[in-house]
Amino acid sequence: MMKIFKYLKKYTFLIIIAITFVVFQGLTNLYLPDLMSDIVNSGVVRGNVDYIVNVGLKMLLVTLLNVAAAIISTYFAAKVAMLLGKDLRSMVFTRVMNFSLHEIDKFGTSTLITRNTNDITQIQTVIFMILRLVSLAPVISIGGTIMAVSKSPKLSTVLLVAIPVMSLAVYLIAKYTMPLFRSMQKKLDTLNRILRENLTGVRVIRAFAKTKYEKKRFENANEDLTQTALKVNRIFALVFPLIMLIMNFTIIFLIWYGAVEVDKSALQVGDIMAVMQYVLQIMFSFIMISMIFIFLPRASASAERVYEVINSKTSIKDPEKPMKPLGNGKIEFKNVTFYYEQAKEPALKDISFESKPGEFIGIIGSSGSGKSTLANLLLRFYDVTDGEILIDGVDIRKLSQKELREMISLVPSRPVIFSGTIEENVRIGKKDATEEEIVEALKIAQAWEFVSKLPEGIKTHVSQGGTNLSGGQKQRLAIARGIIGRKNIYIFDDSFSALDFKTDSKVRMALREKLKNSTVFVISLRAATIMNSDKIIVLDKGQIVGLGTHKQLMKTSEVYREIVFSQLSKEEIA
Ligand SMILES: Nc1ncnc2c1ncn2[C@@H]1O[C@H](COP(=O)(O)OP(=O)(O)OP(=O)(O)O)[C@@H](O)[C@H]1O
């Protein structure tokens, strides 16, 4: 939590205003019982109506000041908490945007969402409470004790018992609820993860008739969270009545002992009432502190989680003096080996090959053979474990990530469609693209045939995730987006898998013409898609087991032959 406090520094002025008014509120709180005892002792007991009216008006004014101070301090405390929340949210968001895939894998998306929403709300709540209550409680407890003792030192001795008992209650609450709140946060993460998986995978779940199973999974996680929350509430259910009991006993004692003192004429009635109010105020301030202890552990667990994100270094950094890529996209993989975090086997092992602009390179291999990993390394989503990747003779780690990625266009295997129009979706690939360029890209991607039939053409709205489009239509839009800008390198990562053979071949032919000056990587599981490439890389268990043209590989690569024979007829192969 302390680490998060440093982000409050720039709001020092607002904090000072909030605390000043809280202190003022506390002082007016303490003044009221004093005025009240005065009314009783000098007004009510003596029947002096003028005195009652005078002091009564004074009490009214003090009350109004008290309310005004409470409103102002609440406003500023809330403002500080909200501004801090806003800062933290944008810090977390910016950090996550700069994360490499390695950090995204490490944290997981669900927890990153919870950290940026629920966790920051917890911090905001506790900051608000600290500003309001933590400064009010000492003023009331110290000031209240002084005032109570000044009214009647004898009656105030009750505090000697009440304060240690209340402190013990606060300590017990903190001790037993702290670990429970920490575990609640983790359980909330799990619940969010299951919810997210269910929402994104709703079609698969229904198709495989797994609704019941998923419902059970969600219910288990929900039950787990509820049980922990119930444990916390059981502690409160036990401790709060206990606190009320202590308070009521204290009042009984004060009335009894006060009555004895009044009887002896050692004390006035008004003073008993004032002491009673002071003691109650002091005890309430302890309850306030215990409220902080309830929220603080939860918020400090949240603060740790938020700080972990803000403070985590991205493993992929730009060099201090980035070099400029010279040339038009000659690529060289030199003995590249790559392990995913905590993986025992390398995803790629000793990969070496070269490619020149104008070449169409097919990458084929069974599922899990390392094809997408190869594309991820070229884009520097991950850094190689060993070896190097050169573009125009320069190690990609010596280029700025922005410049490197500006040279490359990636059409991922799962097309990402944003809510907006078709035009807006394609324009992501080139900000200033004209309408003609958009239509041309759609034509090359063979998407124009369905887009032109839509009532609003390229202005047609697509929903988030492209749910109102078919798989093949989404892929074609993603291809149009990928090719609209001029790039040196294009990577189509299994981007034709949802297209029928005829459309697949039409798209490839159109791409050949449009991208003839660039290096084009076509990753596919289908031999027909990559057969006509200038060069084919055959991957198997992360290693290159064949490199050459279709004809050469048919003679030299056993793995390639197996793939081809399993997919194509003799006529197609020839
Ligand atoms: N983020 C990741 N963390 C850990 N291991 C991963 C990660 N991504 C992929 N792998 C592993 O690396 C290996 C290669 O995966 P990759 O995605 O490159 O295969 P692929 O050939 O593209 O497969 P597919 O054709 O099914 O997409 C696989 O064994 C996979 O389990």
From TrEMBL:
Official protein name in the record: ABC transporter ATP-binding protein
Source species: Thermosipho ferrireducens
Protein origin, superkingdom: Bacteria
SMART domains referenced in this protein's UniProt entry, alphabetically: AAA (SM00382)
Main location: membrane
Its membrane topology: Multi-pass membrane protein
Residue ranges constituting the ABC transmembrane type-1 domain according to the UniProt record: 16-298
Transmembrane annotation, as ranges: 12-32, 52-78, 125-149, 155-174, 235-258, 278-296
